[in-house]
Amino acid sequence: MVPLLARVRQSYEQMTLPLGRFCMRLGLTANMLTYLSLALSLVAGYLIAQSLFWWGIVGILLVGLADVLDGATARAAQTASVYGTVLDHVTDRYAEFFILTGVMLSGWVPPIWVIFAIFGMVMASYVRARAEATGRIASCNVGFAGRQEKLGLLILGLLLQPLFPQVAILGWAVIMVGVASHLTAVQRLNYTRRMLRK
User: Membrane-crossing residues (predicted)?
Assistant: First the structure.
């Protein structure tokens, strides 16, 4: 099972090339946009920690936009590199940590569930990285949910929580992110076992 948004990756990459060319004309590089994405995630985490959830959502969406633009710029400028890929994955993990730490500091979700979600997201990413590092698996981007789907769940929780303050919607969203992440880690581990046995 491939995450939903990963299935349309090729079409999405073609559609975003004009954005990459536009960034090139502005003098932006892919790595600059990657660092911008990281900085925006820190801002988003701060806004969420202050319980400014809707502004936090704007911050998360800007993080996603910068993440799209860095890949598009690398493809448009033909500067895609192994280091750029590693940098992108590392900053993605930091971004997830900043955003979820903001959720924890807001006081709306018990810390144990935030830790559960963060650990699940890290493990899903770690299993994929280790599987692909064997050199025998081209891509281990499989499983119940990718990064975009999990951030979508979190955004939904942030959007609805202010509308229904008496219901722990954000807490349940974080729990679902954690469950989806751990399931994805297990699915990727199982996929790796099957592929290495062939």
Answer: 22-46, 52-69, 97-122, 163-186
User: Model confidence over 3-58: pLDDT tens digits?
Assistant: 555 555 566 667 877 888 888 888 888 899 999 999 999 999 999 999 999 999 99
Token couple for 46: 């701060």
Query: What is the rounded end-to-end Cα distance, in angstroms, of the chain?
Result: 18
Collapsing DSSP states into helix, strand and coil, what is residue 108?
coil
Q: How far is CA 111 from the centre of its chain?
A: 20
Tell me which DSSP letter residue 4 carries: G
Query: Rounded CA gap, 95 and 91, in Å?
Result: 6
Structural domain boundaries in the chain: 4-197
CATH number of 4-197: 1.20.120.1760
How far, in whole angstroms, is CA 49 from its chain's centroid? 19
* Backbone φ and ψ of 180, nearest 5°: -60, -40
User: Which residues, other chains included, contact 105 with Cβ-Cβ below 8 Å and sequence gap of 6+?
Assistant: 48, 49
Burial class (CB in 10 A: 0-12, 13-18, 19+), 91: buried
Report the pLDDT value the prediction gives residue 85, as an integer from 0 to 100.
84
For the chain, list the strands marked E by DSSP: none
* Encoded tokens for 24: 């090139």
Amino acid letter for position 136: R
